[in-house]
Amino acid sequence: MVSRRSPGASLVRAVYRALDRAYDYEAWHWSPARLRAPFDVIGGAVLVQHTTWANAERALDGLRAAGALDSRALAALPEERIAGLVRVSGTPTVKARRLRAVAAAVERAGGLGALFALPTGALRAALLAMHGIGPETADAILLYAAGRRVFEVDAYAQRLFRRLGAGPEGAGYAAWQHWFEGALPDADVEAFRRYHAYIVMHAKQLCRATPVCVPCPLLPRCAEGRRRTSGVPAAAAP
Asked: Do 38-145 and 7-24+152-229 fall under one CATH topology?
């Protein structure tokens, strides 16, 4: 756990402030202005696995147009039909099986309202018990669909903070999640949503596998970025 006064906690908060100035949260696909329904998060979280959001969104549009973007409709459809609707997202057979399994589990729980009425720990356990749902996908659903205060950690977050020279001692998902949540003890659900969104947008725009460092708002704080730019002037740290 990161204490509020530790250098790591200070960095986590400073990065949030810098990214909040640099990116428009309303452009995020799960911002309140763009999110249509909670089940869209569930479907999107499954469909985006191993593909781009653009492809996942096209698959969501296909399900929506077919009247199949809810748990009852999906649970009633054959996997072959679902696969045809989500083919654009890649690995359609795998994703059809996962979507149908998740939909069936939601229906067995009494519907999305009954499932989301569970306490956070029990809800997370129920999600993780569903076929094809791992920690990151479960936390996306908890955060964006169920409105629970959990920090979703993805590869982008780990890459960014490793480049900044920070992170937990442990390398696993739980260690990273505890590190972020411990650094932001006063942050609410909306702040967690925004932070995760900003990290993804930043990772896609600048902090890529091969980063674009010179225009990066975090360059003054980034040891790797300074090495890569080898003396190129940067703006003052936020």
From this structure: no
Residue 15 pLDDT greater than 90, yes or no: yes
Rounded to 5°, the CA angle 125-96-137 comes to: 35
**The tokens 């990065």 sit on which residue?**
15
**38-145: which CATH topology?**
Endonuclease III; domain 1 (1.10.340)
Selecting from 3.30.750.24, 1.10.1670.10, 2.60.200.30, 1.10.3210.10, what CATH number does the domain 7-24+152-229 have? 1.10.1670.10
d(C-alpha 213, C-alpha 234), whole Å: 10
Q: What is the pTM of this model?
A: 0.91
| Residues 6+ positions from 64 with CB-CB distance below 8 Å | none
Q: Which residues of 203-216 are buried (b: 16+ CB within 10 A; e: fewer)?
A: beebbeeebebeeb
Q: How many residues does the chain have?
A: 238
**In the 8-state DSSP scheme, what is residue 152?**
P
If you compute the radius of gyration of the chain from its CA atoms, what whole number of angstroms results? 19
d(CA 33, CA 124): 26
pLDDT at 173: 95
